[in-house]
Amino acid sequence: MIELYSIRDVARILAVQEARLRYWMQTGFVGPTVRKGGRFYYTFCDVLAVKSAKDLIATGMPLQKVRKNVDALRKALPDDTHPSTKLRVCCDGETIVALHDDVAFQPIGGQIVMAFNVPAFGEHVAQVLSMPRVDPSAVRESGPVRSSGAPHEVTDNPTEANSGTTAYRCFVEACAAEDNGDSETAEHLFRQAIDLEPNMAAALTNLGNLVYRQGELEEARKLYDRALEHDPSQPEARYNLANLLEDLGETDLAIAELRKVCAAAPDFADAHYNLGIMLAQVGGHAQAKEHLERYLELDTGSDWAGHARTFLDQIAV
Q1: How far is the first Cα of the chain from the last one, in angstroms, to the nearest whole number?
Q2: Domain ranges, residue 178
Q3: pLDDT tens, 79-129?
Q4: Does some domain include residue 215?
């Protein structure tokens, strides 16, 4: 039987935020290949592809080149690859290959920029998944923007790619600092990531969240707008922009943005919740009911689910 991993599992294994994995999946960059019961799951080969993408990005390799290498790796990996398979994944910046552990890799460019041993990584996977996990639905971020929560923090095994200062490394470290409650360090690192890569939409969005909580609404709005300019399909930026617009009293614009989020990311539970509440407030009870019911399909047990049921009861009266 093929072992499958949820997006939450992969977030823990690779110390990558779930939002980042959803974004990669939605843009077709790298993601799960199995769908069961309406949910997507990663095979071990998929997890190897995501790890390779993460490590290659950390070297500063352009995304288009990363995508090309990861596609080549998927084709090179045997279909029955499992955590104990004696393979090494290597890349010299031009070519990525999966080799038997006893086969030497001769880099074309003169040096190896990424290499990791599959069995060792398989042990890392098993170790992380054996750790206790905090249920993200029980953790809600305080402040004006509701969050789905962050994955249990772990440290991915380093590879030869993970050295030097890159925008993505700053981004990952900023996310870790934010998860640990160190907003000042997180803000500094997000700004550093943007200085290194001005088009990094995820860093623009997360920096927008930080300044939003500090009450700097105009700067937050500009950051969300910049994120969407560079990546119009990113649901997190549009969702947070909608909440900010609601705070500014621009409810019609907020509703329009949330409609776009729900259309592009139908499993984005919080977007359905907030859209349902806003629609109810402006009298759109039928549509509000639709979105609140969709929210309850996605989140049945949290406190917010109780609030959603209360609003549905009020609408029905």
Answers
A1: 51
A2: 159-231
A3: 777 877 788 888 877 778 888 766 666 555 556 667 888 888 888 788 777
A4: yes
Q: What count of Cα atoms within 13 Å lies in the side-chain half-sphere of residue 301?
A: 5
Residues 215 and 167 in one domain: yes
* CB-CB neighbours of 302 under 10 Å: 16
Segment 41-58 mean pLDDT: 88
Q: At what angle do helices 167-179 and 44-58 cross, to 10 degrees?
A: 110
Give every strand in the sheet of 87-91, ordered side by side: 96-100, 87-91, 114-117
Domain boundary among 180, 204, 231: 231
Per-residue pLDDT, 145: 35
Residue 54 and residue 119 share a domain:
yes
pLDDT band at 23 (very low <50, low <70, confident <90, very high): confident
Residues 6+ apart with CB under 8 A from 12: 128, 129, 131, 133, 151, 152, 154
Is the pLDDT confidence value at 41 over 70? yes
What is the domain-level CATH number for residue 21? 1.10.1660
0.90 surpassed by pTM = no
CB 91 within 8 A of CB 115: yes
Kindly state the helix (H) or strand (E) to which residue 32 belongs, with its residue range. Answer: none
Distance CA 296, CA 305 (A): 6
Together in a domain, 25 and 116 = yes
- pLDDT of 82 reads 80
Between CA 310 and CA 49 the distance in angstroms is 43
pLDDT at 7 over 50: yes
**Best mean pLDDT range from 12-16, 127-131, 178-182, 208-212:** 208-212
- What are the phi and psi torsion angles at 151 (to 5°)? -65, 155
Q: How many domains does the chain have?
A: 3
Which one of 186, 206, 231 terminates a domain?
231
Q: Residue 280 falls within a domain, yes or no?
A: yes
Question: Which CATH number characterizes residue 206's domain?
Answer: 1.25.40.10
Q: Which residue has the higher pLDDT, 314 or 148?
A: 314
Pairing of strands 87-91, 39-41: unpaired
